[in-house]
Amino acid sequence: MSATVLVLYNPASGDSTAKEFFENHVLPYLNGNGIRPAAVVATEYPGHAGTVVTDFLQKHHGEVTIVLGSGDGTLHEIVNALLGRALDAARVITFALVPCGTANALFSSLFMSMSETPVVAYKLFSLDAFIARSRPKPLTLARTTLYEGPTQYIPCHGIVSVVVTSTALHASILEDSELLRKEIPGIERFKIAAQQNKTRWYRSRVKLSPVPSTGSVQVYDPDLNALVPFKGSLDLSGPFAYFLSTVNVDRLEPTFRIAPQFSTALPDGTSLDVVIVRPQRDPVFTSDTPQAREAFGTKVFTVLTAAYQDGSHIRLRYKENGDISEDNDGPTVVEYFRCGGWEWIPDEADEKARLVCSDGAILRVAAGGRAVCGAIESNNFLVYG
Ligand SMILES: Nc1ncnc2c1ncn2[C@@H]1O[C@H](COP(=O)(O)OP(=O)(O)OP(=O)(O)O)[C@@H](O)[C@H]1O
């Protein structure tokens, strides 16, 4: 039996061209391939996508394919709305993505943009896979729970990411860039927000947990250019400049390949790739002063710039004088782990360290609380890629 099709797009995503793209390209393309959607819906307000899909699944039983025109945020809303309503474990929802958002991390990770491919054809790649009845890929999810108080384990919030869960600089960037959305609809707003926050450090502790299926945490070794078993302590002390974990993606924008090992060395269990920058690994770090933060901000920028160069940031290393380049043989500037999950335990006096970003949505850890994130398998959600 073929799947029932829902066409859903967010007209406010990215540069607000989803409606036009669907009317001019997606709907005629589906029609031309004999696919008759059961409904075509444009979202009308934040959160609407989750309601539309929940209602649709109540009316249509069996397999459902959603042709989704949006960015990652709308996909995040749908997944969280469905899991929040205790989705039946046997229910399968498959997404054919049409990238209409700002960053489109998941689509860009599934389909590398080739300069010779016309834009319209590129944006229809996931739809092509659906029409060709290719086997869809299961999505891994990352569930974050916020706990109040250091010992009192009271779950107060659970949220699931499909792409990224972060704290530190990335969470600050996402919080600030949202204020720039109207003015700057493209990815440039992330760069401006990065400039605004590059000298911030975040006081926190981190605990990494092993991948359940292997019982180990892996770390990237630039000498071997591979992930190897991590033998160090799983408790990491701060301050942190950057802390970000991903599932399903090696990049957060078409060329920002922040988690390159995800595509270079595919995970063989349900896991997260974690990218960390801690200023105290810098051989010239002496103390936390405004001058030290300013100087380290330049190094953070070098790391982010290298991520745009096919993910070369993970090979950057320190020289004894603190200079960084791929040719050095000192400690890595970036710590790159593959693990099952992490705990982020922010210093309660550090307001900004209490921010957590889940696919662009911003959560706040209560003073004295912690965020706990773990990779989970989901058989409910698949994507054509
Ligand atoms: N009709 C609407 N008007 C205003 N906002 C909307 C509407 N429909 C949905 N939204 C909101 O738009 C937000 C952004 O959507 P989405 O994530 O799809 O695009 P994006 O942020 O531009 O892309 P990306 O997440 O890839 O960077 C979502 O969080 C959603 O709540």
TrEMBL record:
Any single Gene Ontology cellular-component annotation: cytoplasm
Domain DAGKc as annotated: residue spans: 1-149
InterPro entries according to UniProt: ATP-NAD_kinase_N, Diacylglycerol_kinase_cat_dom, Lipid_Phosphate_FormReg, NAD/diacylglycerol_kinase_sf
Pfam families: DAGK_cat
Database matches in SMART domains: DAGKc (SM00046)
GO MF terms held by the record: lipid kinase activity
UniProt-listed GO biological process terms: sphingosine biosynthetic process
PANTHER family in alphabetical order: DAGKC DOMAIN-CONTAINING PROTEIN, SPHINGOSINE KINASE
The protein's name in its UniProt record: DAGKc domain-containing protein
